[in-house]
Amino acid sequence: MVDRNWKQGLPLEGLAVLDFTRLLPGPLCTMLLGDYGAEVLKIEDLKAGDPTRFVGRFFDGSGAFYRQLNRNKKSIAIDLKAEQGREIIRELAKKADVVIEGFRPGAMERLGLDFRELEKINKSLVYASVSGYGQESIYREKAGHDLNYQALSGLLDLSAEKDGSPLVPAVQIADVIGGTMMTLSGILMALYQRERTGKGSYVDLAMTRGLLPTLTLAAATLNSGEDTARRGSGQISGAYACYNLYETADGKYMSLAAMEPVFWQRFCEAVGHQEWSVLQYDREKRNALIEEVSRLFKKKTRSEWVEIFNGVDACCEPVLTLEEAVEHPLNHDGSYWIKAATGTGEIEIIPGFPILFSGLRGQVRYGPPQHGEHTREILENHGYRQADIEEMAANSVVIINK
After folding, report:
1. What is the share, in percent, of the chain residues with pLDDT greater than 70?
2. pTM
């Protein structure tokens, strides 16, 4: 159990996590746990470890994508197909608070490392499984990725202009919202329940199911007698001038999200078109109004529009590139984007910490680990003798990164 007597510090200090995940959803979840104090042991195979190690610019023994997802973790490389390797996991699990895995349903059961087995040796264990469709789904055996999960949830079909084709999103919405964030929520709920009952629990997270909360506004049309939400037909999907994107004279864009009448009124006043204020949700004139507002925005550059709306509370902001977002004044305190050193000291820009606790941020306590970098340290901390560790390395049960 987590020590309740810790003094002011990171909120998850003392929490021990065994991380069997790879790619994006699980590693991002465990990195967030690590950012806020948890001790995360990244369990990797003997061959190459997490596939993200080879994605993006290669430096410091790993690719850029891996470095973005794996700070504040320690790596141990184990052959889980070897009984001795599985015995190591059982030893680690005795002292763990959380286990998280992202294999296809049934994989951990075949290894004898599923919740039912590990619960026998640790009754307070919180065990989370992240998959595309869920452990009990009729699709449990099917492979899938972010785009598939969005497609089956109904979200992807809504993500387009009216009469246009669905668009491939620029980011992994299902992985992060349906996967990372929902898994994080589930784990923390289970830990809270454990504080009251003393017992662990099993968290079954399906990324497709995890997307459903994003559809609440669209789903309201299913039961309200209105036309069911379609591409470009909803209040937040481009059907109205007050909530839309507009190209500027220099080929850049402004975002307008003046949904409430008060913000739309201020927008109309700022651009000198008070006559538009009564047309905000006029269904018959909405297309004509969008065209008028579009013509207006094309008369000035993005920077000119930014200056016009400086100090005007109308929910009108520039559409920034990634580089511009990093340099934006929002990051004046360094909490949105941060600069952190990798293992050998190179400074890289990474997303900052999403949550503050009484002003306290997460921390980069150590950089992304090399493959098997902490195998020896972790085994020693769990009572293994040096001779036994060397023997397991010689027998290819573990990798010791010298």
Report:
1. 94
2. 0.91
